[in-house]
Amino acid sequence: MSAASKVRRARLGDIVKRLFPKVMQKIFKECVSPRGLQGKYQQKHITIDFTENEISLMEKLPNIDDFTIELCYKILRHENVFREPSCKWGNVPHDSEVEIGDDVQRILNATNDVIIRKSEEISELWYQEFQKRTQEILKRVDKFLGQNTSIQLYQTIQSSNINLTDILQDLALMQQVNVIQAVDIDSEKIERYSRVSRVIIDTFPNILRDIIRSNISANKLYQMCLPHLNSFSIDQKTILNNLQSSHSYDSMDITLIYKLLRQFLLVHPPTKGWGSNPDKVDINLADDVERIRRYRNQLAHRCSIDIDKNEFDDYFNNFCDIGNRMDLNFFHKTNYEQEIKGHKTCSMDMQMQTKYKNALKQLENIKLQFEKKPIKFFWGETFDRSLRNLRSILKEGKSEEGRPKVRLQIIFQSEEEVETTIAILNSLKDEINEDLNGIEFIVATKGSIILHIDILPQLLEADELLQSNLTLLLRKILERITASNTESIDMVVLLVEEFTQWNASKPIEHSVYLNFEIEAELLETDDMIEEQLRKLSYAIFKNPNGSGTNTNTTATLLPIVLENIPNTTAAVIQAQTPVKYNLPVSVNFRQQLNIKRSINENQNISSCIKIGNALVFTDNDNYRLIICNSGETDLHHIPLSYTLRYITKVDSNTIAVSCTYDKIILIINIFTRSVTKKIKTSDYCYGISYNDNNLYVVISGVMIRVIDMTGKVISNIYLPSNHITDITVDRNRLVYKDSTSISCCSLDGKFVWKFKNGKFKDLRRMTTDDDGNVYVTSYNTNIVVVVSDDGKLYRELLNKSDGLNRPCGIYFDKKEMILLVSNFHDGEAILFDVKSKPT
């Protein structure tokens, strides 16, 4: 063994011993607050299997000077503070993969390489390549940290003298970093479920939207739905009622589009008819519509998220086939097949997995309802809602003439011998039904195993009746199949949705919609309603000259929307309780500002704030802040090298701006027009709000990170939302939004309320007043909506007639009661005076 190879190994050992731990500690401090971690550790909120040495190091928190590479890695992964490597933990990143997670993995790999490699295996070429790769890693880490300390430490260590014997002895005692430590044994199955979920949540709805969009306009579909609105759920009615104003199908889900395509015969029926499982050779458009609906239900009705590799591959093969046929159907103007392939292989970190896993589970929210060993019965919200409606009908004594029984499906979720079991059950149908009263087994079909059951509605009247009858039937079935000895069987119960074809109504050539406000008391009895309608009809059809008309006219009364009207009990309570709502009474135009230098200048104003007389705007296209005063006599620009998105006021001189795709927050003094601090974030940063010396920042759309003004992480708040974009901290609460809803939670993340109305889409920015009312811009509908501080009431405050044209930025000056709204494209901002109700 040459002396030179020993020196090379010792030099590399010095990097592993002195450099890499310090670099990992720097990354750790950037992403995790040591003091915050100390609190979580003391409260036993960290579920990591620490070694004895690691426990002693954790006891020293917030001091992390002796944290090992492996301990830093364990906690960074447990806290999930940045995206995992594209290659997944424990593998070798590709040279093109250069996110911070990729470089953390490279540090782990490099450490293990040096530990296991013998001196004679370290050639001069291998040594030089290692040094080169290390420097590249350190430069990227320094860029992530916003400093150059890592590369400086490397240079210091490289130029220092080493004790050859000591370092080689230390290397001999070192253990490899265990990169598998934090991996859950079921993580692969969960990831498969999340990838399949992404197709169901993102791609399949878009396919069906393209199909219905290509067959009928939104306005025409709305007219067709009017006579049948009572056939839809409350949520579906809201979506349909908004078709006329939105002209968009974007809020429609798979279930609603399937129902519309089928009921109105908007596409030719599937080969085997609606509701039947298509054969593999059935490849018409409607066959794939039926498949999409079935895949959606099949996955949403699972009570387990485990998907093995063969099942996963089978799903994606079938999904890709659907995507390919859809691309052909739309003459290759779509790219669904490639999109689906991307879902199968794209980088998916833990946050994305959680997002799509939860989104699919929440479609039906399947829960364990009761257990009569060995059978566990599950059902979701759709069945539960149907059950409540049925029981209400039974309680009121309404007959179900022409439908003496209800059809149920029961799905065996864990059944191995599917084909054999189906054959046995269908051959013993009469034997199974013998001695059963009011419940009848019809047929078993494939899909795990699905049992079709007819049951008298009266047997569903109470939980005990439902449980006992289902248990009796299932026990008779289990006696006849091999699964009878199994320890536990999961059953999902579904109500079969009937599709009664609606009678086609004659098209109305010219419809006139009349809207009236009428006191509720005047509709209290049929006679009173008749009297009011008689007066209305006389007023409407009386000719200007006073003579009547002989035209025969048919009028239809549309359903009254009662969702915001309290029931009798609630009305009594409300009458006895002082009204606390303080929605603004009026807004008055104050001033319009033009913040464009020239007509030909392109601007995209995404956010705005008002600090005293200074108005500040983020100009995305031109990488700058625009500052003017309310007198519009002074206009300044602060050029920056980042794409500015969200903005918050820190004090009378200072603002903080989040630059989403640059993963950086800028602290800017607007009077000196200088950047005073840059704070790097671990991922894309969206909405930002300042409160009590801390910044609250949306990270990656799925959590709120609380950081102090030096950039230290105080805590992370995870919220139940698919994609959070903007937040504001107000009165010890967090108000946050995605593109279609506004939600509120406490500062520790406990959910308080949610507001959603299908009319308001593409919500952009928000602000609050002193009463806690939330003001939000609705970009596509040119509206500013204000929502009460408990999320129960709302009002359209401003619209296009007030000068709104794709409004985006919004800010409420609480001191002067002035609302500032900025339009996205035209370089215009408008100030309004706001008047509130007296408390």
UniProtKB/TrEMBL annotation:
Residues of the DZIP3-like HEPN domain: 235-356
Family annotation (Gene3D superfamilies): TolB, C-terminal domain
Domain of life: Eukaryota
Entry-linked Pfam families: HEPN_DZIP3
InterPro entries: 6-blade_b-propeller_TolB-like, HEPN_DZIP3
Name used for this protein in its record: DZIP3-like HEPN domain-containing protein
The organism of origin for this protein: Mytilus coruscus
